[in-house]
Amino acid sequence: MDVIRLLDIRDSALSVDEVLAAVGDHAAGGTTVFVGTVREQDHGKPVASLSYSAHPSAVDELRRVAEKIAADFPVTALAAVHRVGDLELGDVAVVVAVAAPHRGEAFEASRRLIDDLKSQVPIWKNQLFTDGSSEWVGACE
C-alpha cells in the first residue's frame, strides 16, 4: 500500500476524522495530527475572515512535498488536505497526519510536512481585518 494515502486541496469543509482515518496503519506505533484553524488575530490585528487561493500546480507541489517526507522519514502513512476559498474564524484551513513506527518519527515527519507545505506549496492567504484592511500572505513566509 502507498505511504501517501490522501492529498488534496478543497473548497469545502475539511474533516479531521477523514485525514486521521487515511493514515490508520497497524505498523504504526505513533500517529500525529496537526489541525490549522483560522485565528482571531494576526500580528496583533483582529482578523474578520480570510480567503485562500491556490495555483493550479498546488496539488502537484503538495505531492512532491509528501514524496520527500516519505523518502526522508520511516513513515507508514501520511495525508495532507488544505482548504481554499472563504473561511471564517475557527474554520479548519489545513489538516496533516503522519503515522510512523515510533512517536518521535511521527512528530518529526509531521512537523516537516506542515512546514514544507506552508513554505513550498503555492497557496496564498488574503486576511481581512476588522478595521477593513487586508493583507496577502504568500506560502513563502
UniProtKB/TrEMBL annotation:
This is Molybdenum cofactor biosynthesis protein MoaE.
